[in-house]
Design goal:
- The chain is an alpha+beta fold.
- The protein has helices spanning 2-30, 37-45, 94-107, 128-138, 152-162, 211-225; strands at residues 53-57, 62-64, 70-72, 80-86, 114-120, 145-148, 167-169, 177-179, 182-186, 191-194, 206-207.
- The N and C termini lie far apart (73 Å).
Length: 227
């Protein structure tokens, strides 16, 4: 009795196998061996600007650059640009951030649709003249890279409340100030943009002190310039 049951199961398996082979053969002949529309969509969208999240509008600002000229958001209209907060006498992360920003400048040098805004959090020291000398020492060549200064309280509000990037005075900290080492990426329409992390959450800002953060923002600048 058991042998008959096993024989019946075996016959069913053979029939199912024959049907499966026939189905695969039919698909090969019709050119539809794999239907993977979902995978196709993922592949087609990978790396496109639609993958970049819009965080919100860049805070309005009006500051003075290294040439004594007033610079506002309007000066960056139609440009993709990167914003950082730093100070010229910073002995810790600022030199790293400056060097990484130089790499970004060189990668997009000569593109009129790209710019950089470096905002000092120590405006009492970082006058336009000091910032001009700082830019010269760095070897900055782009006319669209503005080193900006203004009133300290105004800049702290812009950093902490406008961008939600920490900046503060601390006499116990190296150089007397503390601040974020992040870069903000802004598109041509004045929107702060960001890629997502591995969990699908917006990164919001890019790490300006690490190679992976610089590589990521450079890739995304290219995408936004194509918009």
């Amino acid at each position: 009795m058991k042998n008959k049951k096993y024989l019946g199961v075996a016959i069913v398996i053979v029939i199912v196998g024959i049907f499966a082979i026939w189905e695969i053969t039919s698909r090969i002949k019709s050119g539809a061996v794999v239907e993977a529309s979902g995978l196709d969509k993922v592949g087609n969208n990978h790396g496109e600007t639609g993958d970049l999240v819009t965080i919100g509008k860049v805070p309005q600002f009006s500051l003075t650059n290294q040439d004594g000229k007033t610079i506002t958001n309007k000066d960056y209209d139609g440009k993709v640009y990167v914003i950082e907060f730093f100070f010229s006498t910073c002995p810790t992360i600022c030199p790293i951030m400056n060097q990484n920003m130089l790499k970004i400048e060189k990668a997009f040098f000569g593109n009129p649709n790209f710019g950089i805004a470096s905002i000092t959090i120590n405006p009492e020291h970082d006058t336009p003249a000091v910032l001009k000398e700082h830019a010269a020492q760095l070897g900055v060549k782009s006319s669209n890279w503005h080193f900006l200064t203004g009133e300290k309280d105004y800049i702290f509000d812009l950093s902490n409340k406008g961008f939600n990037l920490y900046a503060g005075q601390n006499d116990k900290a190296s150089g007397g100030f503390e601040h974020s080492g992040s870069f903000a990426l802004v598109d041509k329409k004045g929107n702060i943009r960001s890629r997502k992390d591995e969990y699908g959450n917006p990164m919001v800002y890019y790490d300006g002190t690490e190679a992976h953060g610089v590589a990521a923002i450079m890739n995304d600048i290219k995408l936004l310039l194509r918009e």
